[in-house]
């Protein structure tokens, strides 16, 4: 299952849901089409599974870093770095998700409105708790999360634009590290996060 989802992620990123064929998806996995139908029944079922796998991975990172036991300086910085790492190492995941949202989320709207909403509300409560304890400014936690998502995922979704502006064929490790620390600084400073020592 994991092999199928990882392999088909690349195909969906390249061709989108409409453009990807079951023949292409099966070829990417090295398995017969019958195997894909056995596990997922339809292309729609496979596509939804790919999207839900992406969200589950992202949300697991969020829950790891944005927790009441952590200081926001550690939690928010760790979350930003994790999200930037995903944009660096798995840009296809972000591109598939962005494409789905740009089409109005026809395959995962129910998931977004129920499961994603529930988990983001829990994250927002942690951030609000940090503010209430005086560890950071009282910022709107939902909009803070939206800003983090936008800043980090742009390095996957708009990689072509970033490379063109920087005049680079590829963004190297040093450039990506600089970008990551810039986003960390913007999030922490923009949220008025106090250092643990103060």
Task: Provide an overview of this structure.
By secondary structure, this protein is an all-alpha fold. It has a single domain (51-190), classed as Tetracycline Repressor, domain 2. Helix content is 78%, strand content 0%. The chain has ten helices and no strands. It has helices at residues 2-19, 22-29, 33-40, 43-65, 72-89, 91-102, 109-132, 141-157, 159-166, 173-190. Helix 4 (43-65) runs antiparallel to helix 5 (72-89) and helix 5 (72-89) packs antiparallel against helix 10 (173-190). The model has no long low-confidence stretch (mean pLDDT 94).
Q: Averaged pLDDT, please?
A: 94
- Following the backbone from N to C, one meets helices and strands in this order, namely HHHHHHHHHH
Instruction: Estimate the strand proportion.
Output: under 5%
Q: How far is the first residue's CA from the last residue's CA? A: 48 Å
Measured as a percent range, the helix fraction is: over 70%
Q: Characterize the largest beta sheet: strand count, sense, and whether it forms a barrel.
A: none
Q: What's the CATH first level? A: Mainly Alpha
Total strand segments? 0
How many domain regions? 1
* CATH fold descriptor: Tetracycline Repressor, domain 2
Structural class: mainly alpha
Shape: globular
CATH architecture: Orthogonal Bundle
What is the CATH superfamily classification? Tetracycline Repressor, domain 2
Number of helices: 10
> Roughly how many Å is the radius of gyration?
19 Å
What's the multimeric state?
single chain
Low-confidence stretches: none
